[in-house]
């Protein structure tokens, strides 16, 4: 189990070369089929860095060392995500979605993923006071990811076809949910 103090902060321009390296890592690239040339990362993550995107790109820090990335957004702010999720599960108004990666290879497989997800879900209740739930869709083939969600306390509430990052993957996705405490 990876110990240490967890924190996060907004992605900034100086983080983009590191993010490009993470996205180029074969383990990350398997599930995040994102262009990883620095110019592509600057193009695609620049709007978030500049505050032009409604969602948040957050660098995960372990004892002040960048180790991963979490994307957090109100689902309704991304109509394509809302339509795709709504075809599989009821999406409560104001619900938030998460996506995540552990970019630092030495921290994978050591319990950091579930810690990050649990901490960000908890933080979501304060950062998004109107959010009744957090939903996370994960391709069924990504066992490590959905096991991390389960270990973080999210529960599987649906499964169905969604567009996978890798066109070679089966479209079956699992949808996990955490509800606001006392909500």
From TrEMBL:
GO molecular function, one term: N-acyltransferase activity
Xref: InterPro entries: Acyl_CoA_acyltransferase, GNAT_dom
Extent of Basic and acidic residues compositional bias: 170-183
BP GO terms, sorted: response to antibiotic
N-acetyltransferase domain span: 6-181
Protein name, per record: GNAT family N-acetyltransferase
Region called Disordered, residue ranges: 158-183
Natural source organism: Vallicoccus soli
Taxonomic superkingdom: Bacteria
Keywords: Antibiotic resistance, Transferase
